[in-house]
Amino acid sequence: MDVRTLIRTKREGGELSDEEIRFFIDEYVRGDIEHYQAAALVTAVFIRGLNDRELMTWTASMVRSGRVLTFPSLPQKKVDKHSTGGVGDKVSIALAPAVAACGVCVPMISGRGLGHTGGTLDKLESIPGFRTDLDPDAILRALDRTGVAFGQQTKDLVPADRLLYELRDATGLIESVPLIASSIVSKKLAEGLDGLVLDVKFGSGAVVPDPEHGRELAHVMIRLARSQGLRAVAYQTAMDRPLGRAVGHALEIVECLDCLAGGGPDDLRELVLLFGGEMLVLAGEAPSVEAGSREIARAIDEGRALGVFELVVAEQGGDPRCLRERDRLPRAPSVEPWKAPSTGILSFRDNRKVGLAVGALGGGRSKMGQGIDPAVGLVWRARAGEAVTRGDVLAEIHHRDGFGLGATETLLAEAISIGPAPKLAPLVLARIDA
């Protein structure tokens, strides 16, 4: 086959055969298709889409590009949660150890920052020494010893998605239902899961801002998962404002530690309890989401969840002293207060620009393989819906010697609005189970 034929077929609105899809995925992973050729085909898919048959084959081919994990020696159920991404979305980091503290294993293959969003792996790797490049044996050991494994797409685990994920990020091909769905579900199918909770964000800071578009994505992912025998449930949650107060890798780790200590922002804790309760239901460890949420709350408030996270950090090569002595985490050398230009009620007219502001400081990527600064970011001192007075500190900008500071301040000014009381979306819009 010739990849140029596939590009032309999809560009002109045609359907790719199962054989053609398998050829593309296999040859791209093998290195026999150039990145620019893959980008052309992915662009055509972005524009033209994939029908159900194409998407099923595309996803299955991504899964079979590497190993599918199995854990026959672990008696516990294996359940995971995945988010479509957002600004300040650090839920997974606090959630996984809380669920493990309740007796359920969480093998979590996560991604890096995508566009304006932060990545779970990038945040965890801001902990000195923390490794996410786990091979299957290391994942099994981590699950056996701690109940949690935070891993990335290695050469053995969904290598096709690792390549396509970086390609989409570097070329701006992010907001596509079939590409998002296949990326997420392929990773989860490779984990050998018994259940999956999907967090589909909506609002200006989401990868898929429109709630109806997000509902479509949720249905597609659930169909994909269930077609392969994986039980899945989705929630639509708000991303029209940052989640929590911190946006930036090490800063978000600090906020997760606050949550695991029984504090932290209310919205972060609410989602941890909700998703954790659903995960316990899928694992057969709770009769209802409400009962499961109570179990998660007890695990956090009794300190068991934080204890699990300490074990996870040590198991994956990190320095557990950072969790108690937070000055050991990366810290930006300078903090600039960013003040309210007027008096009124704070709202976010374009939350996406908050994520881009962190990128301007060095906390994001604009090309494949680019490094990031884990110390930079924002901490909001005022939140959406709160009254502010001109001159109040809205946010603290953690920066390195002024790098990107001017661009960040411009982006933040474009991100917010101060005026009449806004109509805030509910934190949880809907639960989708079919």
Structural description of this entry:
The protein is globular and about 65 Å long. The protein is α/β, with parallel strands linked by helices. The chain contains 17 helices and 13 strands.
What are the defining features of this structure?
four-stranded antiparallel β-sheet, alpha/beta, 15% strand, globular, four-stranded mixed β-sheet, 434 residues
* Total count of strands: 13
Shape: globular
Described by strand count, sense and barrel closure, the largest sheet is: 4 strands, mixed
Q: End-to-end distance, in Å?
A: 38 Å
Q: State the helicity in percent bands.
A: 40-55%
Query: Helix and strand succession?
Result: HHHHEHEHHEHHEHEEHHHHHEEHEEEHEE
User: What structural class results from the helix and strand content?
Assistant: alpha/beta
Number of helices: 17
The fraction of residues in strands falls at 5-15%
Spatial sequence of strands, sheet with the most strands: 1-4-5-13
Our Rg estimate from Cα atoms comes to 21 Å
- Poorly predicted spans: none
Kindly report the average pLDDT value: 94
